[in-house]
């Protein structure tokens, strides 16, 4: 009986050590979240997305909104293919995925080479009664080279719905292509996001969005699917 117990005890100890090792490995690994938006007018068809050689999303259309997907954090290989194919990707890049990451397919229609452009998202919960919103300019043609009366990029006004922007200063100025604004904290309400020619009140886009308490949102400025105008915005649900 004593010999049998001596054999059982080391075996049990080994199982405890193995479990502890597995727990340590599990705690050391972390997950990240990403979402992908196809904003490249250089791509003529819907696309499929692979991460580390595995298909994660298919038939993604231009300007299609996106939700977060979970993957291991750290450097991941992202590839974008014409839908239904797995060779000759439109774009391929190693991208570091953090807690929340938004990735855009980007590239102008006139001979541009598609690229993958990542942004780090800050989904810190706003205080009660407030919301946060940022703007990302993914339109390669909405703000051409600066003219004498026009600076680079576009200006953004965020105003209560229906309010005239005459006499107001924009909250965001000179937002250039592939650039994000700072997050704007706003009281929960319904707002118009107005995009104008830089340094002018010439309106290019005006859309209405309702922001509720403790929401975080990203508004994305886009070209037409074939390049150029008419320009549009989509809104991404970051938090709540």
Order of helices and strands: HEEEEEEEEEEEEEEEEE
Helical percent range? 10-25%
Residues in β-strands, percent: over 45%
In total, how many beta strands? 17
The geometry reads as globular
What is the helix tally? 1
> From the alpha-carbon coordinates, what is the Rg to the nearest angstrom?
24 Å
- Provide the residue-averaged pLDDT: 88
- As an assembly, this protein is single chain
Largest sheet properties: 5 strands, mixed
The CATH class designation of the largest domain is Mainly Beta
- Tally of distinct domains: 2
Q: Helix/strand/pairing class, anyone?
A: mainly beta
The rounded distance between the terminal residues' Cα atoms is: 62 Å
Task: Write down the CATH topology of the largest domain.
Answer: Immunoglobulin-like
CATH architecture term of the largest domain:
Sandwich
How would you characterize the overall build of this protein?
There is one protein chain. By secondary structure, the chain is mainly beta. It has 2 domains: 30-121, Immunoglobulin-like; 123-240, Sandwich (Immunoglobulin-like), CATH 2.60.40. Helix content is 11%, strand content 46%. It contains 1 helix and 17 strands. Strands 9, 12, 13, 16 and 17 form a 5-stranded mixed β-sheet that branches. A hairpin with a 2-residue loop joins strand 2 and strand 3 (54-60). The longest helix is centred in the N-terminal third of the chain and has 27 residues, at 2-28. It is globular. The N and C termini lie far apart (62 Å).
